[in-house]
Amino acid sequence: MLVRKIGTLAAGLVTATVLMGGPSPTMASTTISSGADAAAAGCLSVVDWYNEKISQYVKVKNTCSSTKSYCVDINNWPDKGAFTISGNTTKSQRYAGIAAPTGRGIYSC
What we know:
By secondary structure, this protein is α+β, with helices and mostly antiparallel strands.
């Protein structure tokens, strides 16, 4: 609970700084260190984010022929994963309950 409050407070301070004309912060991103990682990242894409009953889902598409793994990036919440998806398929994956913020992206993990 304390971690969530600190994250919310930090987000409020960043928003206030930007609104007052301060510098806009950059978002952290995953560093791709090899050609294999770059290819894996290029194969996966998010088709849709949606809620069903008390769960949140992400629909992911893998355009490569090999199985890939990915994690879900959730703002101010622990990231979820590693999930796997077979080659040349689209798959819906439950990543959190309804209380969690909506995911904001996927990354190779």
